[in-house]
Amino acid sequence: MDDAIAVRDLVVDRGGRRVLDGISCTVARGAVTGLLGPSGSGKTTFLRAVVGVQVVTGGTITVLGQPAGAPALRHRVGYLTQAPSVYADLTVRENARYFAALHGRGRAEADRAVSDVGLAGAAGQLVATLSGGQRSRASLACVLVGDPELVILDEPTVGQDPVLRADLWARFHAMAAAGTTLLVSSHVMDEAARCDRLLLIREGRLIADDSPAAIRAAAGVDDLDEAFLRLIRAGAAPAGGAS
Ligand SMILES: Nc1ncnc2c1ncn2[C@@H]1O[C@H](COP(=O)(O)OP(=O)(O)OP(=O)(O)O)[C@@H](O)[C@H]1O
């Protein structure tokens, strides 16, 4: 009942096409919710709408009790876009300290955020000289440094090796245990299995909104990958919204 996000009848058109078609769902506080779906199904568009940077055609989105995009949410919501958003001509540490300052945080918090994403050893390196995966983690550090109540992550583990992915997911769960709400898009099924709850989008419609275990049970298979394939191929009836 104490939802971080409540979406009602969300409709979004982009480029003259209906991209999200009547999505209703809720995202619980203090949990990790996964947003899954085929490429082009509307995941990024959904996240953009929740952050308040997407023009919507219809519906309502309430985020931490405010309309999505409300100025009061600026320090309360962190958003990691797919493209890293860091300054290439600053070091990792300088980036983190800059974003920390924007959120009224200090150097200690900045250095901790850098270390939390496994970049302590590269803290003094210019972002321009980082690998793609390192750059993405630098961007993540800059999102987390403000300690937002709601963290929206668009494919945060792309380009990371399995050890780093496991470390990042452990970090996400530790944040959730401390009360942070995370909404994370992913293509990777082993990551879906790590989520407390899953939203599955297909062609702009919500086709599943449940725990990984319940989705497996509903599809009658043990493998989440196979369960999703079945749901997607069956063109399952849209999920009923808020639960
Ligand atoms: N700027 C844009 N203008 C017009 N159409 C767009 C724009 N951005 C995305 N779209 C379209 O909206 C639909 C949903 O795109 P979106 O990026 O939300 O999908 P996605 O599920 O995040 O995909 P992926 O997993 O590949 O990142 C796609 O059909 C895409 O072509």
Automatic annotation (TrEMBL):
The keyword Nucleotide-binding applies. The lineage of its organism: Bacteria, Bacillati, Actinomycetota, Actinomycetes, Micromonosporales. This is ABC transporter ATP-binding protein. The keyword Lipid metabolism does not apply. InterPro entries: AAA+_ATPase, ABC_transporter-like_ATP-bd, ABC_transporter-like_CS, P-loop_NTPase. Keywords: ATP-binding, Nucleotide-binding. Pfam families: ABC_tran. GO terms for molecular function: ATP binding; ATP hydrolysis activity. Residues 5-228 form the ABC transporter domain. It comes from the Bacteria.
